[in-house]
Design goal:
With 335 residues, the protein is α/β, with parallel strands linked by helices. The protein contains eleven helices and 15 strands. Helices cover 29% and strands 24% of the residues. A nine-stranded mixed sheet has the order 3-4-5-2-6-7-1-9-8, with helices on both faces.
Length: 335
């Protein structure tokens, strides 16, 4: 009934994104695989979290579910916490793995991990309002891979709940969900995304008392049916063919076209833009260059107009991805 990692492993990808509903067994399956790989081949693993508070809480009882299910009987598992070396996972008194923090990755550049083969980055998609993504998070993650594995092959498992498909990793690598399947690969098979569809688990969870309680709610669709929590289809529409191009916007390494339609009085934000248009705005100082104008929503007449259309219900996005990328910054200044 629980998630089986084997189909993902059969692709032998370097980096594996695994998205699934809560409790389906993503973390459990990856822990079990890493322990098996250590016992059979001596390959150590790294368990990675974004912040120290996340690592501390997730490592309390790290092996409990495996022990409760009588996995690896005859072996003794322990966790060691030391101020300088951090967290180590022990099996029969020997080092089997390490607990590391993404936000302090720069400290790893002079340290060697010659026996580490596998990496688990748990909950790489964040819940809004709980934590923030790191600045240049993808580069920081790739730096960790470089520090851990050097020139060796490896397996990285990035595990997440279906909270928001717009995140730094999907944007950076241009990743989208599999269509009519659970698995899709990119970059000549080196990147993989698995969007779990485990019907037996969902049906079982729906019959529990809690499952019945949340049935039909937004949270139920997220926690049971693996639907994206922070997505709805309001204000999403294709722009009319006769819409007039207004200006170009760069934000979070993406380029958007802002279009105006006189018949409906709507403004549309699209992935299509006029590359010859000299009016290019950016909201991020890191993306500002000699070809852009660095502006704020509050001071620019262009953006004051855009915000007013949003308040009046006349601002539309051509896709869910575009909306998810921009809605937070628009809401920040619209109220």
């Amino acid at each position: 009934m629980y998630y089986d990692l084997q189909p993902v492993l059969s692709y032998n990808a370097l980096i594996n994104f695994i998205i699934g509903e809560r409790g389906v067994g993503k973390t459990y399956g990856c822990k079990k695989f890493c322990i098996k790989d250590y016992l059979k081949n001596g390959n150590q693993f790294v368990y990675l979290r974004r912040y120290s508070t996340e690592l501390k809480s997730s490592c309390d009882g790290f092996f409990d579910s495996l022990i409760a299910n009588h996995e690896f009987e005859g072996h003794e598992f322990k966790i060691e916490r030391k101020r300088r070396s951090g967290i180590t996972f022990l099996c029969d008194g020997e080092v089997m793995g390490f607990g590391l923090i993404l936000s302090t990755a720069s400290q790893l550049k002079s340290k060697e991990f010659p026996n580490v083969k596998n990496l688990i980055y748990d909950e790489f998609i964040i819940e809004r309002g709980v934590y923030r993504y790191l600045t240049n998070e993808v580069h920081t993650f790739l730096d960790i891979c470089e520090s851990l594995f050097r020139l060796r092959d490896f397996r990285a498992f990035l595990l997440g709940n279906a909270i928001n498909r717009v995140n730094p990793f999907f944007n950076y690598f241009g990743i989208d969900m599999p269509y009519n399947s659970q698995i899709k690969t990119y970059k000549n098979g080196e990147l993989l995304i698995c969007y779990i569809k485990n019907e037996p688990y969902r049906e079982f969870k729906k019959q529990t008392r809690f499952g019945k309680l949340i049935s039909g709610t937004e949270y139920g669709r997220y926690a049971i049916d693996n639907e994206w929590l922070h997505e709805n289809k309001t204000f999403i529409d294709k722009r009319p063919e006769k819409a007039r191009f207004f200006f170009t916007l760069k934000y979070k390494q993406m380029t958007y076209g802002i279009w105006s339609d006189a018949d409906t009085s709507r403004i549309y934000i699209s992935s299509s833009f006029d590359p010859k248009c000299p009016i290019i705005f950016t909201l991020d100082p890191a993306e500002h260059n000699e070809n852009t104008r660095l502006v704020s929503f509050k001071r620019s007449d262009f953006f004051k107009n855009l915000l007013e259309h949003y308040r009046m219900g006349l601002l539309y996005f051509e896709s869910q991805k575009i909306k998810n990328n921009l809605i937070d910054v628009i809401n920040q200044f619209a109220v």
